[in-house]
Amino acid sequence: MLKFFKIDSKLEQFTPAIPTMLYGRDDLVKEAVSYIIENEQALLAILGPGGIGKTALTLKIKEEKVLKVKYEDRAYFIPCDILPDMASFIQGMMQCLKIPGQEGKGLREILFGYFQTNTKYTLLILDNFETTWNSKEGRIHIQWFLEKLVKFKHISFIITMRGRDIPKNIKWKEVGAESGIPPLSIVAARQMFLEIAGDKFSQSQSLEKIDELLQELDCVPLAVKLMAQRAKIPIESLLKMYRNSGTSILVEGKGVPSRWTSVECSIQISVDLLDNDTFNLLSVISYLPNGIPMWVNNMNKMLPNLNNFEASVIELLDCSLVSNSEGDLKMLAPTREFIQTKYPIGIDEVMSLEIFYLDWLKDIADGEREIQEEIQKHIMNIVKVLNSHSDSGFLTSQHIEAVSILFGMTKFYPLVIEVINNILRNGPKLSKHERNELLLKKIDMLMWNASWKEAESEIQKVREKTIENEENNARSWQGIVEIGDLQDNKNEVGNMVPKAQIKFEEMEDQWRVAQCLQRLGNIQRMQSRYSEAADMVSNAQSQFEKIGDQLGAAQCLQSLGNIHRMQGRYSEAADML
């Protein structure tokens, strides 16, 4: 009898236990099982990055009752991560199927002979097939071998791989999204985290903070599992620990790390598949939180010195280190964190990105189209670039202009406040005018976000430092007015509005004068001084009409209608309302 190399014990060792619970994958299991049952021969591909749960999903599919009816005990799990070449792959398959060797016959001959005589439905699960597929001896013989096996119509296959570079000339059915198996939903990730962490932890922690941590992990199953195993300290401490130490804490036990016990080990397996020419692009994408939106159009503008970037993109997609979603290249958060630490971006690439975003922002702001949704795709990249440069302590007028453009979009205010704080803290080369302008913008945004106390504190700082600047002084009075108004401090507001009005009249700022008159009229109305209120609001209406502000004039007209209604002058009120 032909002797085999001793890999049979390893096959058992590298076959994971069937998961008792699988979170958020019911639809994928149903999709896969339906396809397998409805087709005499199933050719199922389960693709995605390391740690996304491909193996667990496959084992769950294998255990479904309807599959046990179809295949009985002829469903075989073959861990290809220990079968790095053609010879070991065939030998491993024969040992899984318990096919004995025969003197005078080669392994392929024996295997093909077996399937010719054993024609009952059989399922072969080739898990982590990228190891065998990327054999040093090349792919062509493995490709031919699989094509010959596929001709046996009673043999079905489930293949799991990192990336989309699967064996060609075989019509695979891919499960999941465009880029393969997606991360968990936040609901499924939370359920998984809480069940692993246990009841004592779950009952005492903020679900909002748990979701914040899970979102920083991008709900990647392996990362969620390993973090949950550390849930012996408060969730705030877990968040702090991850932000300080990154993926290095996502490891189980103290033994030799593996793809099942270490996020970094799982990612490194994919990185090891890359050619050297691809690492520059890998580092750049890890640096950008939004990845590269619309990469076909933007890549050569962002990185003009990167040659043959299309080949690098293909390679990164093939290894599932990035995904391509609606034309945007993105990287999962744990992968991004690990790559940034181990393969940091070069200074030349950082400068290229900065030049691109400063020019791009200015170009789209000069246009007439709606730009908020367009900026949304890039906003975290822009913030990263602006913060990185302000950290260096060197800023230009272009950086200040970029902040001013973003200031025009309320959706981004929390992020813009963060950028301004960074600039004010690290930008010693700012002129006094630039610093004051940024402070006033920050105050406006704080008030928009209803951060009254913080806004009032900033206003007092501005007034102390800019008493000699009439515009800033007037705007600071206006800020205090708005805070008092929104906090319902009517007496305080009533005293402050005239001061702001006088300042704006001196500056001939008619729009802000009209605002002050409108606000004074509303205050008089709330104090039941209707005659004075009507005069103030009428003056404001006239002022708005002179400067062509139709919205302001309409608001005043509505206020006048309310004043007349409160005076019992219903006919006049009806005309105005």
Automatic annotation (TrEMBL):
SUPFAM superfamilies: P-loop containing nucleoside triphosphate hydrolases, TPR-like. InterPro entries: P-loop_NTPase, TPR-like_helical_dom_sf. This is TPR-like protein. PANTHER family: HTH-TYPE TRANSCRIPTIONAL REGULATOR RV0890C-RELATED, REGULATOR-RELATED.
